[in-house]
Amino acid sequence: MSTATIPRIFTRLAHHLLKPGPPYRCLSCSRLLAQQEQIPKQDTPNSTTHFGFETVPSSSKQSRVANVFTSVASSYDTMNDLMSVGTHRLWKDYFVRSINPGIRNSGEEKGQGQGQGQTILDIAGGTGDIAFRMLEHCTAINNDHTSKIIVSDINPDMLAEGKRRARAGGYEQSGRLSWMEANAEDLSEVENNSIDLYTVAFGIRNFTHKDIALREAFRVLKPGGVFACLEFSKVNNRLFEAVYKRWSFGAIPLIGQLVAGDRESYQYLVESIERFPRQEEWKGMIEEAGFLVPGGEEGKGWDNLMGGIACVHKGMKPLR
Amino acid sequence: MLVTRPLHVFLRHPANLRSSLVWQCIRDYHSYEHEAPFPFAPTEDAILSAALSHVPTHGFSINALTQGARDAGYLDISTNLFPTGAFSIVRYHLVSQRLALAKHASSLQPQVDITANIATLALHRLHANKPIIHRWQEALALLSTARHLATSIRELALLSDELLFLAGSTTVTSSWYTNRAALAAVYASAELFMTQDTSKGFVETEEFLTRRLEEGEKVRGGLDMFGKWVGMQAGGLVDGLRSKGIWV
């Protein structure tokens, strides 16, 4: 080793240890400046969250999600049918059937029944897909004509779409539906311990703070009340996953572009599905919020649909 | 091996819920010193035991489960805690009655006669079905559905194992398996017989059970003798061949 190299090594080492970060290069001044600008941005108290694969400030996620849903509200059904090849209807049917909302023969029996129906809160249910199904299930299966459903959505356009459908489908006359424009992370309009069933179908993925929304759900539910969530999840079969990924990243944005004329919104959709926590992790978050998760020996605590493309998670608020 | 949840899982839960998680640990060996934890969490236990008391009127149905939830102070919707619905009441009955056998077994005289002990225990277990016998066919129907068949067979195997263990059977040969299989078959048929039994105090079921167990003994004796005979003949054959100079 020549004597000249040793000091050079030391210089490099010192440079490495003392000044981490990109080396100063005259030609890349602007890049350096840009990086220096970015670093304090992350350190500010304004935390960031993900919007699809992008990282955005938490404060702006809500409005960006709102934009997505405003732009897809009108073509919502067509798009859902095309993207899921019609199976989203089956999933929603299954979801409602497995929950079995409504009190059997409510209003008829006096001694045994509690005399009144359930109060159901359907979060992110703007278009009423789940609400109408639950209403039908209550009436047709359980002969319950008293249970009430509050449909809540953060997006007025989606709510308007739901109201239009409620009128068209004849659900509005029942007087059992009510509409509420609210953020699921702040349900201050809803009292503590007042809800029997809290449902959220394909919505919780878009929430900025899922843990806060879960705690809010825990707050509004009566002891013994149930939190039920239908959401896209992770496919458990490798081969099927490859096909599914190809479909969701290749075909869905393309269908969005062709049918709804909006590629970005559907690009966001598939990216947000990818970012949603795995089944185990999501179950952990539900338990963390204080819910008792069903399952035990027979189940895992969730219910995979179509190999895990969608997944039903439930939790019950304990008495004490 | 004692399988409990890792510590961080406990700590993640609110303090008031942690105690209920301790119940969920699983132990896959038998300990004479420590009682095994009850396999149902306190909440499940409360709802299911209340539901079971409604079975004589409502049957093994989601109705009974709903009534049970109401009795335990929960809501109708709380039945979502049981994904298998009415079957969870059946399973609760099977598991709790199986575990209750251990208490009864302490009254037995040890090492008297294993067959007699088995008969006493099996009869005791059958009598536990008395209050719900008129609804038991519903349970059998649920138990035999494809979705629940694996659980049912497992539960029957566990019951058969429990009966033999409590009766004092200590075999470690291949008869460990045949004994359990035979007892499972006898018990299942006796249970089915009991649903049709109209005699007072289910004497006919008792007779049926005794007959089947006796038959089992006879078959086992016969098989033993046949096995011995085959062994003797084979030995004789080998000896004969060897005497003829064949290298066996």
From TrEMBL, chain A:
Q: What is its EC number?
A: 2.1.1.201
Q: Which GO terms describe its biological process?
A: methylation
An example GO CC term for this entry is:
extrinsic component of mitochondrial inner membrane
* Pathway(s) where this gene product acts: Cofactor biosynthesis; ubiquinone biosynthesis
Catalysed reaction(s)? a 2-methoxy-6-(all-trans-polyprenyl)benzene-1,4-diol + S-adenosyl-L-methionine = a 5-methoxy-2-methyl-3-(all-trans-polyprenyl)benzene-1,4-diol + S-adenosyl-L-homocysteine + H(+)
Q: Which of this chain's residues are annotated to bind S-adenosyl-L-methionine? A: 127, 153, 183-184
Q: Supply the alphabetized keyword list.
A: Membrane, Methyltransferase, Mitochondrion, Mitochondrion inner membrane, S-adenosyl-L-methionine, Transferase, Ubiquinone biosynthesis
Asked if the keyword Ribosomal protein belongs to this entry, the reply reads: no
- Recorded topology in the membrane: Peripheral membrane protein
SUPFAM superfamilies assigned: S-adenosyl-L-methionine-dependent methyltransferases
Q: GO MF terms on file?
A: 2-methoxy-6-polyprenyl-1,4-benzoquinol methyltransferase activity
Q: Name the InterPro entries for this protein.
A: SAM-dependent_MTases_sf (IPR029063), UbiE/COQ5_MeTrFase (IPR004033), UbiE/COQ5_MeTrFase_CS (IPR023576)
Q: Which NCBIfam families match?
A: MenG_MenH_UbiE
Role of this protein: Methyltransferase required for the conversion of 2-polyprenyl-6-methoxy-1,4-benzoquinol (DDMQH2) to 2-polyprenyl-3-methyl-6-methoxy-1,4-benzoquinol (DMQH2).
- This protein is called 2-methoxy-6-polyprenyl-1,4-benzoquinol methylase, mitochondrial
Gene name, Swiss-Prot/TrEMBL: COQ5
From TrEMBL, chain B:
Q: Name the InterPro entries for this protein.
A: COQ9_C, COQ9_HTH, Ubiq_biosynth_COQ9
GO CC terms of this entry: mitochondrial inner membrane
Instruction: Pinpoint the COQ9 C-terminal domain residues.
Output: 150-218
Gene3D superfamilies associated with the record: Tetracycline Repressor, domain 2
Pfam families of this UniProt entry?
Answer: COQ9, COQ9_N
Q: Which pathway?
A: Cofactor biosynthesis; ubiquinone biosynthesis
List, in alphabetical order, the GO biological process terms annotated in this UniProt record: ubiquinone biosynthetic process
Keyword field: Lipid-binding, Mitochondrion, Transit peptide, Ubiquinone, Ubiquinone biosynthesis
Subcellular compartments: Mitochondrion
Principal localization?
A: mitochondrion
- Domain Ubiquinone biosynthesis protein COQ9 HTH span(s) in chain numbering: 46-69
Family of the protein in this entry: Belongs to the COQ9 family.
Q: What does this protein do?
A: Membrane-associated protein that warps the membrane surface to access and bind aromatic isoprenes with high specificity, including ubiquinone (CoQ) isoprene intermediates and presents them directly to Coq7, therefore facilitating the Coq7-mediated hydroxylase step. Participates in the biosynthesis of coenzyme Q, also named ubiquinone, an essential lipid-soluble electron transporter for aerobic cellular respiration.
From the Swiss-Prot or TrEMBL record, give the protein name: Ubiquinone biosynthesis protein
Provenance organism: Alectoria fallacina
Q: What is the lineage of its organism?
A: Eukaryota, Fungi, Dikarya, Ascomycota, Pezizomycotina
